[in-house]
Amino acid sequence: MRGALGIGLLVCLLVAGAEAPGQSSRPVVYVAPIEGIIDLGLAPFVERVLREAQEAGAAAVVLDINTFGGRVDAAVLIRDALLRSPVRSVAFVNQRAISAGALISLAAQTIAMAEGGTIGAATPVQIGAPGGGAQPVEEKTVSYMRKEFRATAETRKRPPDVAEAMVDADVAIPGLIDKGKLLTLTTSEALKHRVADFRADTLEAVLEHLGLGGAEIRRASVNWAEQTVRFLTHPVLGSVLMTIGILGIIVEIRTPGFGVPGIIGLTSLGLFFWGHWLVRLAGWEEILLVALGIALLAIEIFVTPGFGLMGVAGILALLAGLTLSLFGAGATVQLIVYAAGRVVLALLVAVAGSLVMLRFLPHLPYARKLVLDTALGAPGGWASAPESDLRWVGKRGSATSPLRPAGIGDFEGERVDVVSDGQFIEAGAAIEVVRVEGNRIVVRAARARREET
User: Fold this and answer.
1) What burial class does residue 209 get, using C-beta atoms within 10 Å of its C-beta: 0-12 exposed, 13-18 middle, 19+ buried?
2) DSSP secondary structure letter of residue 263
3) HEC string for 372-421
4) Is the per-residue pLDDT at 434 higher than 60?
5) Which tens digits make up the pLDDT trace of 143-171?
6) Which of 13-27, 162-176, 246-260, 390-404 has the highest mean pLDDT?
7) What is the DSSP pairing of strand 110-113 with strand 396-399?
8) Tell me, what DSSP letter sits at residue 115?
9) Which residues 6+ apart lie within 8 Å of 137 measured at CB?
10) Disulfide: which of 244, 339, 373, 411 matches 397 by Cβ 3.0-4.6 Å?
């Protein structure tokens, strides 16, 4: 019996050992489509494919490229991922690699182009800025992108001057492109000038040329998380999330307790920052700036009277945090102004929306639960201003200490704890009581009285 079991175990081991070489001898190739507009959500997709290919010991990753370009910062992220990855990368230009697509193609170790393909035309432009469509960018940005293309070409042993001519019309190459013209190469021209390595019209032809004709092909696709990131980082949805987030925070601050507006506001801002954090636009610095801005605004509203330095600082921190999360490396002045404009517009819409909501919410049947509209008298627990303090309303006196904003005032020879209505008042200045809020006596600098005749 033991002998039979031993023989059976030996046979199983031999079969497993015989199958293992057969399984490992077939190479694996990952194929990732680069189609349509290159946006920020595409970068994590390419990074994931490269990571999975490395873990699987893949022979190559083929980028099936057909794009007119897109965001520069997204292309730079993909370019960096390709240069870092130890996996062999192949750019299959089928049919075009224009603008940002050209940078991605140049970052691959091997470039194959289909018949009738084109590559180049990569000068950066500002799209969507106030005032219309595509607009030229400043020289600093053109210089930055020119060197990105040159460095990428040098790394992959391709002609750097040809790569620069794709970005800058001032680059002239005798026999290829004159000054003032932007370089775009056809498949034949790309092969002639050593930008492309070979011609192939199908993916199968690409793999045959690479000696991977019998490889196992694993086609990658964007998963739900990456699709969500692409959705959340869309400019229109990003502006909507900013507006809803700010609106919810404002309404929550102006209503008692913590409820639905605060939850909606924080959720919207959370989705906004989560999407931009995944594509490396928003970091902890931007998140902390926004949190600081909200905290300063809350202090200004609830702690200090009037609207002063803390309120201004809170608004600036909020605007800075949101603006910085909208652009990445190589941002142009136009892009920064455009991003700031989006944030300011979102803030203005949120403020206007909050005024409307706070005005009409108490009158809506399903919204009354969000707003405290019950009047409380003394029997219900409301503590009104002491009668002795109300007598100071309208009285004039002097500040015996600086009011920053709290301090001490002198009225009719009596020292009284007071707080200014937001302004700084020097000691000795004339003051007058404008109102009493609970146990706070609010004063302001006294206005000069006209002489009676």
Assistant:
1) middle
2) H
3) CCCCCCHHHCCCCCCHHHHCCCCCEEEECCCECCEEEEEECCEEEEEEEC
4) yes
5) 889 999 999 999 999 999 999 999 999 99
6) 162-176
7) unpaired
8) T
9) 124, 125, 126, 332, 334
10) 411
* Cα–Cα dist 417/261, whole Å: 36
On the question of a cis peptide bond just before residue 44, with omega within 30 degrees of 0, the verdict is: no
- Cα–Cα dist 334/324, whole Å: 14
3-state secondary structure 191-224: HHCCCCCEECCCHHHHHHHCCCCCCEEEECCCCH
List phi, psi (to 5°) of 330.
75, 20
More reliable by pLDDT, 81 or 227: 81
Gap between the Cα atoms of 48 and 42, Å rounded: 10
Partner residues linked to 311 by β-bridges: none
- Per-residue pLDDT band for 303 (boundaries 50, 70, 90) equals low
Mean pLDDT of 43-59: 94
Q: How far apart are CA 117 and CA 114, in angstroms?
A: 5
Residue among 260, 453, 261 at smallest CA distance from 353: 261
**Cis bond upstream, residue 95 (ω within 30):** yes
By three-state DSSP, how is residue 344 classified?
helix
Amino acid making up residue 389: D
Give the strand pairing for 198-199 and 110-113: parallel
* Torsion 398-400-402-405 (CA) sign: negative
In this structure, whether the domain defined by 26-224 belongs to CATH 3.90.226.10 is answered with yes
pLDDT tens, position by position, 232-279: 877 788 888 888 888 888 777 766 556 777 788 888 888 888 877 777
β 440-445/414-420 pair status: parallel
The span from the CA of 392 to the CA of 410, in Å, is 11
Q: Give the Å distances, CA to CA, from 220 to 34, 67, 323.
A: 11, 17, 33
- DSSP code of residue 448: P
Under a CB-based contact definition with an 8 Å cutoff, are residues 206 and 62 in contact?
A: yes
As given in the structure block, the two tokens for residue 178 are 């004159």
Instruction: Give ranges for CATH 2.40.50.140 in the chain.
Output: 384-445
| Tokens, residue 407 | 């301090």
The confidence score (pLDDT) of residue 416 equals 86
Domain with CATH 3.90.226.10 in the chain: 26-224
Determine whether domain 384-445 maps to CATH 3.20.170.30. Answer: no
Residue 436: name the closest of 402, 400, 411, 453 by CA.
411
